[in-house]
Amino acid sequence: MYISDKWKEYEVIDASAGEKLERWGDYILVRPDPQVIWDTPKEDPLWHKANGIYHRSSKGGGSWEFFDLPDEWQIHYGKLTFNLKPFAFKHTGLFPEQAANWDWAADLIRNAGRQIRILNLFAYTGGATMSAVLAGGHVTHVDASKGMTGWAKENEMSSDLPHTSFRYIVEDCSRFVEREIRRGSRYDAVIMDPPSYGRGPKGEIWKIEESVFPLILKTEKLLSDDPLFFLINSYTTGLQSAVLTYMMEMAFKNRKTKLIEADEVGLPVRDTKCCLPCGCSGRTVFGR
């Protein structure tokens, strides 16, 4: 398991009965988690001192209940600053479990000995983007949501990172990749964090089971002659680590690779000493 255990301002305190108890900086949140299928006593007193609780609805979705929680606040991961705010469907604008992947990619970029051009697809609010830039890379950040892209820019400014190392694109990711192929663009690394389901800005429908492998194959055409890495994440039940591994093996069968592997991504739980699974990631390192 790829474990994100270097956070100072975030932690999963406890997890039980479909919910996780989290500390986000100075604030305590309770949010639902489908992986938490066990029901153990909620003995930690912080369960009863939450600043915000997300309640699921039996009809789908849900809503927040707030107790002394600001509209927006910040937490940090090393030199990176993230602006957080609770919004639709339980999210805060950050997936802390991805820090393990940020660190993995940053080490590769930092030790490459050359400028690395990275394409970040479905880039959300920019955690992977900022970590890659901090390590010395140049990132093309692509997301279909104008709002999420604006949020990423806010995080960039709060982290005081060089603006010349970012290129922001608001566009359907598949459409952008096709356009870059026609232009002859090349990248040394790709980060891909596709949703299970989504719609592009022009109504394009994305279903991961149908769309992800064709996108991987198209994105492979954008890799440079000397690529560094490819990283893909999945929060979809049907796309487990073995599936990610097989797709990468097929997509990169004509390239030299040092590593192709996939595993669960997880967060340590303070009170129970277990690790909470949070999807899985596939990693490829290229090399002769």
Overview of this protein structure:
With 288 residues, this protein is α/β, with parallel strands linked by helices. It has 2 domains: 2-71, Sandwich (Immunoglobulin-like); 96-286, 3-Layer(aba) Sandwich (Rossmann fold). It has 6 helices and 17 strands. The chain has helices spanning 99-110, 127-134, 146-159, 173-183, 208-220, 241-251; strands at 2-3, 10-16, 19-24, 27-32, 52-56, 62-66, 73-77, 80-84, 117-121, 138-143, 166-170, 189-192, 197-199, 205-207, 229-234, 257-268, 275-286. An 8-stranded mixed sheet has the order 1-16-17-15-12-9-10-11. Helix 3 (146-159) links the parallel strand 10 (138-143) and strand 11. Helix 1 (99-110) runs parallel beside helix 2 (127-134). The two termini are 27 Å apart.
Radius of gyration: 19 Å
Mean pLDDT: 93
Tell me the strand percentage band.
25-35%
| CATH level-1 class of the largest domain | Alpha Beta
| CATH homology-level superfamily of the largest domain | Vaccinia Virus protein VP39
What's the end-to-end separation, in Å?
27 Å
Q: Using the coordinates shown, work out and report the CATH topology of the largest domain.
A: Rossmann fold
The helix/strand series, from N terminus to C terminus, equals EEEEEEEEHEHEHEHEEEHEHEE
- Give the low-confidence spans: none
Tertiary shape: globular
Q: Number of domains in the coordinates?
A: 2
Helices and strands in order:
Elements: E1 2-3, E2 10-16, E3 19-24, E4 27-32, E5 52-56, E6 62-66, E7 73-77, E8 80-84, H1 99-110, E9 117-121, H2 127-134, E10 138-143, H3 146-159, E11 166-170, H4 173-183, E12 189-192, E13 197-199, E14 205-207, H5 208-220, E15 229-234, H6 241-251, E16 257-268, E17 275-286
Parallel strand pairs: 1-16, 4-5, 9-10, 9-12, 10-11, 12-15
Antiparallel strand pairs: 2-3, 3-4, 5-6, 7-8, 13-14, 15-17, 16-17
Helix pairs in contact: 1-2
